[in-house]
Amino acid sequence: MDTEDHKALREAVAALGKRHGRTADTTQLWADAGKLGYLGVNLPEAYGGGGGGISELSIVLEELGTAGCPLLMLVVSPAICGTVIARFGTDAQKQHWLPALADGTRLMAFGITEPDAGSNSHRITTTAHRDGDNWILNGRKVFISGVDIADATLIVGRTEDARTGRLKPCLFIVPRDTPGFTRQPIDMELNAAEKQFELTLDDVRLPADALVGDEDAGLLQLFAGLNPERIMTAAFAIGMGRYALAKAVEYARDRQVWNTPIGAHQAIAHPLAQAHIDLELARLMMQKAARLYDAGDDMGAGEAANMAKYAAGEACVKAVDQAVHTLGGNGLTREFGLASLITAARVARIAPVSREMILNYVSHQTLGLPKSY
């Protein structure tokens, strides 16, 4: 259940979203949300944030999505990158990045996915090695959001453990204009304000202070960012599902055939009611995951965050599908703005981790079943 503070935050963000509505240009919305303090609600007050957690940031994204204007970079810039820097960054990194991430004047992208490894951190081939006081990075990334508008990208690479010789994950801040760091846009059918890119790192030279956190604790730092990513993806999906459902309910209430609103018929009403139930259940799991994460229970949050992301993705796809079906031919028109969500809704099933990998996680980690891989 929402606290009074959460209710007030939800209402305020909903009002901002309503003022902007569906928009292809999120630049002004991002600026307005930053000025109002919504982008950094999860970041420490000492660095210009709101002093809250992922619970508060997920409310911001959910309500903007419900208004039809979700901000994908909320998942990336304050939730992943801001969280990692706040928890593990040096004082200088915190001073430089957190106030600007909180007010929206700087953005940071996140680069983990690779062409051959997906998001499997154990198979990442982007490598980092020392060269005097510097680091040299080489590798490729794919499906990285918003690199063109981000001031830097938090890159997940791997470096050799001096004791074991094994490669371990490390995180590096790579400014956008660093020599050797190039981007190529990916031609997507998905119509979104934030573009997707393939990145190439060709002997990218970075100073020692580009490394975030302890070189020996990279996996811990990585997962500190991935749990918020899953929670925020759930918020993104729930907001989108709520937006689609509200459109369908309004249409079903007003549209009359044979002098009766179509929403009076159970064949229309019941699937919409089921969609509402599924979205509410997904929201409860998301709230549980956010509370566990904000309380410092990384292990418990990992399980709940994966479940929340799975449930929200499924609920979103079903809600959008039912909304389009409720409107019939109108559901495919630009006027009603639902058809584009058919593709967008599937993102929550696919990214940042597929539903099949979440089922693997639950079967192995929760149920204790053996792995097939």
Give a topology summary:
Layout: H1 4-20, H2 27-35, H3 54-66, H4 73-88, H5 91-103, E1 108-111, E2 127-131, E3 134-145, E4 152-160, E5 167-175, E6 181-185, E7 196-207, E8 211-212, H6 218-254, E9 256-257, E10 260-261, H7 266-294, H8 298-327, H9 339-350, H10 355-366
Parallel strand pairs: 1-4
Antiparallel strand pairs: 2-3, 3-7, 4-5, 5-8, 6-7, 9-10
Helix pairs in contact: 1-3, 3-6, 4-5, 4-6, 6-7, 6-8, 7-8, 8-9, 8-10
Report what the structure shows:
With 373 residues, this protein is an alpha+beta fold. The protein is built from 10 helices and 10 strands. Strands 1-4-5-8 form a 4-stranded mixed sheet, with helices on one face. A 4-stranded antiparallel sheet has the order 2-3-7-6, with no helix packed on it. It has a two-stranded antiparallel sheet with strand order 9-10. The protein starts with a helix and ends in a 7-residue tail after the last helix.
Summarize this structure briefly.
With 373 residues, the protein is α+β, with helices and mostly antiparallel strands.
Order of helix and strand elements from N to C terminus: HHHHHEEEEEEEEHEEHHHH
Estimate the mean pLDDT confidence.
94
Instruction: Measure the end-to-end span.
Output: 39 Å
Q: Count helical runs.
A: 10
Largest sheet: 4 strands, mixed
Structural class: alpha+beta
* Radius of gyration, CA atoms, in whole angstroms: 21 Å
Number of strands: 10
- In order across it, which strands form the biggest sheet? 1-4-5-8
Shape: globular
Helix content: 40-55%
